[in-house]
Amino acid sequence: MTVLPTGDLPADKISLAQLVQAISNGALVLSRDTDFDGCMQLVREITTKVPIYLANSLNSLRLEGQKTAAIEILEQFDWEVPDWVIVPGGNLENICA
Q1: pLDDT value at position 2?
Q2: How far is it, in rounded angstroms, from Cα 48 to Cα 27?
Q3: CA distance 19 to 79
Q4: Contacts of 52 (CB under 8 A, 6+ apart)
Q5: Collapsing DSSP states into helix, strand and coil, what is residue 91?
């Protein structure tokens, strides 16, 4: 399986930091004259036509995978809860998982 970093970003509706993050990770970035929902619509259409797995916050399996990280941390700490777990912020989907 090939993983292609891509970004479909609403034109003039994201911060420079968000754009730099995508580009610095080698993403092919498309700027579209729409909002987040318009970008998601395009991504959904693409993933129905080509063999790409959509692993975004709307996919329940992504959240299950993020919960798995908590179990793995506990296993590595011999089932003792650490005092701190530092999680990247992004859009904070990791926190809700």
Answers
A1: 41
A2: 20
A3: 39
A4: 4, 46
A5: coil
